[in-house]
Design goal:
Layout lengths: L3 H6 L4 E4 L7 H12 L4 E3 L6 E5 L3 H11 L8 E3 L15 H10 L4 E6 L14 E5 L4 H10 L3 E3 L13 H8 L5 E4 L10 E4 L6 E4 L5 H8 L3 E2 L1 H4 L24 E6 L2 H17 L4 E5 L11 E4 L6 H17 L4 E5 L7 H11 L4 E3 L1
Parallel strand pairs: 1-8, 2-8, 4-6, 5-9, 10-11, 12-15, 12-16, 13-14, 13-15
Antiparallel strand pairs: 2-3, 3-7, 4-7, 5-6, 9-10
Helix pairs in contact: 2-5
The protein binds threonylcarbamoyladenylate and magnesium ion.
């Protein structure tokens, strides 16, 4: 029996299929109407699906936190449809920001600014900074434009779960808890945007993502990785400048273990761990790559794609983690991957999904 409270929040979720390249304007307007009235709309971006609400309506933003069961101290990203919309949301636009917005927006790069006073506290979780990005997806851009407001949107998953890369993932987590899903198929990049803090000197990447660190280094010269990006163990909370870092993340129901090191030894160790878990009566999944797939004898073996194609690995990561849950796997043993390009984001998500259970060989 649902409790009175959960019964009250249940609503009928409207799923609208839209063309990713030429979104049907009448469908976008239906969704935008919900946003303007304080409702919740899940929509695709080039990275993952977001759960949107009017960023300037504190009641609507609070409803996003509730629908996702997200801790209130972890602020979402505000999405704009034009770089010009940034200025009223922030105290100032530093010159580095101008340069980055020109070069990389629309795209998978979120920038942290000092926030202006028009932004409600809940939208930034009480911080004096704000995270803003312009997504590179025609459905997202049309929705923001038609809503005529900046849209606050965390990833459209239940807190702690892998981010959704399809409307089906959103439905699995949030059906009955949100008003609308704009379904434009699978997302292109598959991991979230890179979060770059421009309020510190030099600028710092707080979360690796769809925009590779190498590209930022080339554009900025001076830029650092916050220690949380590459950490191999859970860091004390006070080190976590990015509020999201201290909460559980990307975790499927299964336990995850990552094995990192030289490939032949990784393969041996994964086979050894598979045997160990099988003997304990566990159903074991292995998350690997095309080049190594044939070496494993787990109950379920899934390949992320070729080790030489990190874009396809990023695109498949969250989908495969969710599949292991649907297939009732108890333990997932995953191969480590190179940390260049999109690999940095993939490895960061894998380590977090594992709760930093990392085996080095
Ligand atoms: O690709 C993406 O970024 C997706 C799509 C929907 O745009 N969105 C997304 O949002 O991943 P979310 O809320 O799941 O992640 C936002 C991240 C969190 O790690 C949060 O802690 C960080 O951005 N963040 C937000 N505001 C911040 C701030 N003022 N300072 C530092 N980090 C902030
Ligand atoms: Mg998220």
């Amino acid at each position: 029996m649902p409790s009175f409270h959960s019964f009250r929040v249940m609503k009928k979720t409207l799923v609208l299929k839209v063309d990713p390249q030429n979104p049907e304007i009448e469908k976008i307007r239906i969704a935008a109407d919900f946003i303007r009235k304080g409702g919740l709309v899940a929509f695709p971006t080039e990275t993952v699906y977001g759960l949107g609400a009017d960023a300037l309506n504190s009641k609507a933003v609070l409803a996003v936190f509730k629908a996702k069961k997200r801790p209130l101290d972890n602020p979402p990203i505000v999405h704009v449809h034009d770089a010009k919309d940034v200025s009223r949301l922030v105290e100032e636009v530093p010159s580095e920001a101008e340069k980055l917005m020109k070069e990389f927006w629309p795209g998978p790069l979120t920038l942290i600014f000092k926030r202006s006073t028009i932004v409600p506290d809940v939208t930034v979780a009480g911080l004096d900074t704000i995270a803003i990005r312009m997504p590179r997806h025609d459905v997202a851009l049309a929705l923001i434009r038609e809503s005529n407001c900046p849209i606050s949107a965390p990833s459209a998953n239940l807190a702690g779960k892998p981010s959704p890369t399809s409307a089906e993932h959103v439905l699995n987590d949030l059906d009955g808890r949100i008003d609308v899903i704009l379904d434009a198929g699978s997302t292109e990049i598959g991991v979230e945007s890179t979060v770059l803090d421009l309020t510190v000197d030099p600028p710092q990447v707080l979360r690796p993502g769809g925009m590779p660190f190498e590209a930022l280094k080339k554009a900025l010269g001076r830029v650092e990785l916050n220690p949380v990006v590459t950490t191999e163990k859970a860091l004390p909370v006070e080190k976590a400048r990015s509020p999201g870092v201290k909460h559980k993340h990307y975790a499927p129901d299964a336990d995850v273990v990552v094995v990192e090191g030289e490939l032949p030894r990784v393969i041996d160790k994964i086979n050894e761990l598979t045997e160990f878990y099988k003997r304990r009566g566990n159903r074991v999944g292995v998350l690997c790559t095309d080049e190594t797939e044939r070496h494993y004898k787990a109950n379920i073996v899934k390949s992320l794609g070729s080790r030489y194609d990190l874009a396809s690995i990023a695109r498949n990561l969250f989908k495969l983690l969710r599949e292991f849950d649907l297939e009732k796997v108890d333990v997932v043993v995953a191969e480590g991957l190179p940390i260049e390009g999109l690999g940095l984001a993939v490895v960061n998500r894998l380590r977090k999904a594992a709760g930093y259970k990392i085996v080095k060989v």
